[in-house]
């Protein structure tokens, strides 16, 4: 994890340790990678569970969880000191994909979310933030394909590719 010349912790006069800004950035990059892994796991499960419709709820849950982690990592990479306390409070962001997405779009100066994408995101967010994708509910009796997710999935995958470019292949950093 540490790169050449990066200090991970500092020790002050009272023998207390503090994670350096460099180390915190590395931890935030690892959080981003963890989110990507959740998204990748969801895509693998999606491909391998075509004949098991109930598995699609698990796919959607894992995908949303990965998306949440990626969005939080991006906010932390933008301004760790500002966002770390906010991300710990359920009332500020919690598991709300819509709030997190809008905040990332705003902070990174991206184009606003289209109405079609926002509608799909709101539907997924409602299911995810209320834990309907994770726990059993009446929803399980219905075909999971009624939950639109194509736009969100395509946009998240495109965002991952773009983010990877900026984080790992360029001098541009958030």
Write the layout of secondary structure elements.
Elements lengths: L8 E3 L5 E3 L1 H28 L6 H34 L8 H11 L7 H15 L20 H19 L6
Antiparallel strand pairs: 1-2
What distinguishing features does this structure have?
174 residues; mainly alpha; two-stranded antiparallel sheet; 5 helices; 2 strands
Strand content: under 5%
> What does the oligomeric state look like here?
single chain
Strand order in the sheet with the most strands: 1-2
Mass-distribution shape: elongated
Cα radius of gyration in angstroms:
18 Å
The description of the largest β-sheet is: 2 strands, antiparallel
Q: Mean pLDDT score, rounded? A: 85
SSE string: EEHHHHH
Report on the structure:
- This protein has helices at 21-48, 55-88, 97-107, 115-129, 150-168; strands at 9-11, 17-19.
- The protein has 174 residues and is mainly alpha-helical.
- The protein has one domain.
- The protein has a two-stranded antiparallel sheet.
Task: Give a brief outline of the structure.
The protein is mainly α and 174 residues long. It is built from 5 helices and 2 strands, in the order ββααααα. The protein has helices at 21-48, 55-88, 97-107, 115-129, 150-168, and strands spanning 9-11, 17-19.
């Amino acid at each position: 994890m540490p790169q050449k010349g990066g200090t991970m912790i500092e020790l002050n006069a009272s023998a207390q340790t503090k994670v350096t800004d460099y180390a915190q950035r590395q931890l935030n990059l690892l959080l981003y990678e963890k989110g990507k892994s959740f998204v990748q796991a969801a895509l693998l499960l999606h491909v391998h569970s075509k004949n098991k419709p109930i598995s699609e709820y698990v796919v959607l849950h894992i995908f949303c969880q990965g998306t949440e982690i990626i969005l939080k990592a991006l906010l932390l990479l933008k301004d760790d000191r500002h966002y770390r306390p906010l991300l710990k409070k359920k009332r500020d962001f919690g598991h709300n994909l819509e709030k997190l997405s809008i905040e990332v779009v705003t902070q990174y100066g991206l184009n606003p979310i289209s109405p079609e994408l926002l509608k799909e995101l709101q539907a997924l967010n409602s299911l995810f933030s209320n834990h309907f994708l994770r726990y059993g509910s009446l929803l399980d009796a219905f075909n999971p394909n009624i939950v639109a997710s194509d736009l969100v999935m395509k946009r998240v995958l495109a965002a991952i590719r773009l983010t990877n470019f900026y984080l790992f292949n360029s001098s541009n950093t958030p």
